[in-house]
Design brief:
CATH class of the largest domain: Mainly Alpha
Number of helices: 3
Strand order of the largest sheet: 5-4-3-7-6
Largest sheet: 5 strands, mixed
Helix content: 25-40%
Structural class: alpha/beta
CATH topology of the largest domain: Helix Hairpins
Order of helices and strands: EHHEEEEHEE
Shape: elongated
Radius of gyration: 22 Å
Length: about 160
């Protein structure tokens, strides 16, 4: 059974744009590389041709994977998202109980995760630990080394 992909409306649009770009622009670029490599002569001993064909195979796999995600996508409508507890589609504000440092993260599906952009997957260790918890609760987040981090949820808002 295919795995459901949770996406925000923006994530859905980004996915469609990426598929379109790969299916048109990148496919043309790779086809041009293959055509150019063929012109070098015997393709049985032509490393440029082999590289271009490998790139084509990887590109087709990437397009296929993204198309599968699109087919199995469930869009999270921000108007239906409750801010009572942490769920996919909310922005959660947390305060580290040890360092007193505050952060805010948008909880998204794994397809949209971008930790550097403050978008955490609901399947990441921090995202998974926060899921279902409410404002004011202190959540213990396991870390690879040392004691678990304790994060206090200070605010939950719609994304």
């Amino acid at each position: 059974m295919p795995r459901e992909t949770l996406l925000t409306p923006e994530g859905l649009e980004d996915l469609k744009v990426k598929i379109d770009h790969l299916s048109t622009v990148r496919r043309r670029e790779v086809a041009d590389r293959i055509k150019e490599a063929r012109e070098f002569g015997d393709i049985s001993e032509n490393s440029e041709y082999d590289d271009a064909k490998n790139e084509q195979a990887m590109l087709e796999k990437q397009i296929s994977d993204l198309a599968d995600k699109l087919r199995n996508a469930r869009v999270i409508d921000s108007t239906d998202v409750s801010t009572e507890a942490v769920t996919v589609g909310v922005i959660v504000h947390v305060k580290d109980q040890k360092t007193e440092k505050s952060n805010k993260f948008m909880i998204v599906g794994s397809a949209e995760a971008d930790p550097s952009g403050q978008k955490l997957s609901n399947e990441s260790p921090v995202g998974k630990a926060l899921m279902g918890h409410k404002r004011g609760e202190i959540v213990s987040v396991p870390v690879p080394r040392g004691p678990a981090r304790k994060l206090k949820i200070t605010k939950i808002e719609a994304a």
